[in-house]
User: Fold this.
Amino acid sequence: MTPMIDIVFLLMTFFIMVINFSQAESNEAVHLPDSELAQPPETPPSEPMTVQIDADENIYLGSARCWLDPSAVQPGARPLFEVLSEELNMKKVVSEIRPEDITLIIRADADASVGFVQRVIQTCQSVGIATFTLRAKHGGEGFAGSPESEGGFQPL
Amino acid sequence: MSLRDVKVSPEVPKLEMTPMIDIVFNLLAFFIITFRIPAVEGDFNIKMPVNAPPSSESMDETAPLEITLRSNEAGDLTAIVFGQIPLGTDMARLRTEVFDYLQTGATDISKTEAEFTADGDLHYSHLIDAITAVSGYVNPENQVVKLIENIKFTPPK
Assistant:
């Protein structure tokens, strides 16, 4: 019995160590585009806020489901502008964080349209957010290749 | 033999293992089922202040490199234009053009800006590919060489 319990406890320890709670924020419906240059930032943004856009162009801000177009109103969803404004007001009151301090992380699906993503950015700009990051998944099938000839890149 | 002489062996308390093992197995099953190898994710920074000056004035006299991405209605990439140069749909050529442009030393790399104009229907993955192409590359020594880090978008029409 003892060796089995030892192994089970070792397995438990392994899973507890590798469990990644930061993934809890990522939406399963969003399949990020691949990029060979996508590396975790050296210094994470101090005031991050994440907007997720799936392939069907549903928007999620935290746990809130949002819509951009009045023509695309869905039950249980609220206007993005309204949710953003509320969130920013709360941050301002509670922690004195201004919209300019916020970095908006956009996790958009590879098949979402660029026009839609840009309109989400515009809506965020309208509440004062100025810094955005586009999130991508490292590696995969994204575009890769080096333009270097012999001697490498020589910045002048 | 008197009753006093009877030796009662001390009772060894028995540890109940079964409930603990049940719980441990439940926890193990939970961890195994919910376990996902986390994918490495990274960011491309874009700076888009609300009242930004026109692109030609934004970076110390350096005009941004204009990159246009065209698509069909299905969202597939149909054309890349670098300035006025059509590049077909070849991202490698876009990277080479940017690389060659920066190699000439005509501009300060840190101040060089790339401005993307993309058709609304274009799939987002193509935009990320294009941003990847102008942002840098991984050289044969597996090191990331950065090219243009200032990325912006033309507002949608």
